[in-house]
Amino acid sequence: MTSDLSLVALIREASPVVQTVLAILVLASVASWTFIFMKYREIKRAEETAEAFEERFWSGIDLADLYRQLTREDYDTEGLENIFLAGFKEFARLRQQAQIGPDAVVEGAQRVMRVALNRELERLDERLPFLATVGSTSPYVGLFGTVWGIMNSFRSLGTVKQATLAMVAPGISEALVATAMGLFAAIPAVMAYNRYAAEIGRLATRYEAFTDEFLSLLHRQAHLK
Fold first, then answer.
1. Nearest CA-CA partner of 39 in 114, 24, 207, 47
2. Fewest CB atoms within 10 A around its CB: which of 85, 128, 159, 201?
3. Domain annotation covers residue 195
4. How far apart are CA 167 and CA 194, in angstroms?
């Protein structure tokens, strides 16, 4: 085995199993970084949308006018906007039916708003399980490559009479590269998962608080004579 311990040489002359492990970890790292940047933009957009919508909602605008504005505007609604649209649409539909009482109208709006809220949270949670999987499994995948590389190094000692450090150093080095690659893939994924999970939790609390406040407004409107 070559005595060149440069990183490129170690990877090039590693065993096929270790090379496969490294390739898997590189692909996992690239995919996780892609999802990290995508999720960052998605959460930031959701926060900005919630901030802008709440400012409009509490500005004193008539709810029917706000509904018409959101349905006319040429962009895809999301987050609080979708929760509001679902609730107000159902509220207006049920209120037009004379046989349905005020409490039933509010309950109907509440049901569709909860469905819309859960749908928005599910959308925010997309790809987070992948980051959790990369963060939890990458070290073990790298450890597998490490163990395999060390096994090959010690197996090669059985064919020689006198073992030297120079003989096992390349094999051990390539094995440790697999461990380092596993950590390189896992650490950013774990950090991103923890951060985004906390931010989504705060958004969920914000969505739920708005839903309760909006239901209070609908309850008062439903009982107006």
1. 47
2. 159
3. yes
4. 43
Residue 99 forms part of a structural domain: yes
78 three-state secondary structure: coil
How many angstroms separate the CA atoms of 55 and 208, rounded? 17
In a domain, 71, yes or no: yes
Domain that holds residue 121: 7-222
Asked, for residue 101, whether it belongs to a domain, the answer is yes
pLDDT tens string 180-222: 899 999 999 999 999 999 999 999 999 999 999 999 999 988 8
Q: What total number of domains does the chain contain?
A: 1
3-class secondary structure per residue, 1-62: CCCCCCHHHHHHCCCHHHHHHHHHHHHHHHHHHHHHHHHHHHHHHHHHHHHHHHHHHCCCCC
Q: Tell me which residue of 224, 174, 205, 200 sits closest to 11, measured CA to CA.
A: 174
Long-range contact pairs involving 87-93 (C-beta distance under 8 Å, separation at least 24): 87/112, 87/113, 87/116, 87/211, 87/214, 87/215, 87/218, 88/63, 88/64, 88/218, 91/218, 91/221, 91/222, 92/64, 92/67
Neighbours of 127 (CB within 10 A): 18
Looking at the chain, the number of H-run helices and the number of E-run strands are: 7, 0
Give the integer Cα–Cα distance in Å for 134 and 193.
Answer: 10
Round to whole Å and give the CA distance between 75 and 87.
19
CB 10 within 8 A of CB 170: yes
Residue 108 in contact with residue 219, Cβ under 8 Å?
no
